[in-house]
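Look over this record as teaching material.
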Amino acid sequence: MKPMELKIARIGNSRGVRLPAEVIKRYRMDSVVLMEETAEGIFLRPSGPVVNKLSWQETAAEMAAEGEDWSEWDSVVGDGLETAPWDHGEPRKVTEKTAVYGAKPGPMKSKIRRFEIRWTDMNPTRGAEMGKARPAVIVSKDDLNACLQTVVICPLTSRLHPRWKSRLPVTCESRAAEIAVDQIRTVSRARLGRKLGSLSDIDAAALARLLVEMYGD
């Protein structure tokens, strides 16, 4: 994420800064935050226990040991996302109907944009691949999306693993979810359904950074 310039304002005899609402929502900050002074500067984090991410090796070992079985789910109903509309923070067109998780994938009529959330038909699958119809975020670049008949996606899940480095936490209408970057794949445009929303700029930047960290070496 690019550095963000915040203005210091007077609050009584003290000084303070205003944090963007999407940052507070993303990191699930409540009425209290913890401040730590480090060699690199000031570090703010939500109150409560710290969730330390596993290393890549530890993440892979724990994922292998858990053996997630996506085939047992008939649809995203079992994933807990069926009733939560995606809040993408942008005004909708007057003629655009509100989309919710749980609605069946519909025909795609609009252009495909990077970091959009779309219903995606993941079947057929093999082995431990995520299957069924579920929300997924488009991660391929717009120049590619405009020309190719395939796109690259990362599916969403509400089965949370906060310590896994390969999962990016996001918040949808106060509902916790994760982007499963370890389940990245290329799919046909014909598998994409209606648009549910888009990632915030902060979540999009975090996802781009994780993609580079995970697959860039």
